[in-house]
Amino acid sequence: MKLLMERFNKFVAEEGADLKRVAKVVLINEDDQVLILRRSSRIISEKYPWEWDLPGGHGEKDESLSETLDREVWEETSLDIGKSTKIYTEDYTTFFVSYEWEGKISLSHEHDDYKWINPEEITNYYIGEMFERAVGRIAIG
Questions:
Q1: Are 115 and 105 in contact (CB under 8 A)?
Q2: Which has the closest alpha carbon to 69: 43, 101, 41, 42?
């Protein structure tokens, strides 16, 4: 487990990453479903044990949260998101919602699967309470 933790810490501590600024998006499709990403087993750790994730990630130095969100979503999914609206901030994570994107999903090494789910199904996935709360704050439909 120690080796796994070391590998994860190296992965997260990217050059210029600001570990205290995270942007995540609740991405909603035309069927009012939310996109969740299954995290690669290589990056699951004791500190971050969740199997599922929302698109987004850590900011880089001098990068706005909007820029972070756009870059991270592109890196993780190959999607270009359109207009996004801030929902709220919890701890170091700012959550956004977006109903607009372009492209076809192609996952990075950070994730190995994705699903579009109905928002009320979010508690059926091991995604973490903070992400469940973010999805729960969205009025869909």
A1: no
A2: 101
User: Is-contact 53 40, C-beta < 8 A?
Assistant: no
How far is Cα 105 from Cα 80, in angstroms, rounded to an integer? Answer: 10
pLDDT digits 0-9 by tens, 30-78: 999 999 999 998 888 787 778 999 999 999 988 999 999 999 999 999 9
Extended beta strands in the chain, E state: 17-27, 34-39, 52-53, 56-60, 80-81, 85-90, 93-98, 101-102, 111-117
- R_g of the chain, CA atoms, integer Å: 14
Q: What is the per-residue burial (b if ≥16 Cβ within 10 Å, else e) of 124-135? A: ebebbeebeebb
Give phi and psi for 59, each to the nearest 5: -75, 160
Entry pTM: 0.84
CA 50/CA 119 separation, integer angstroms:
18
Kindly state the tokens that stand for 98.
């977006």
92-137 pLDDT, tens digit per residue, is 999 999 999 999 999 999 999 999 999 999 999 999 999 999 999 9
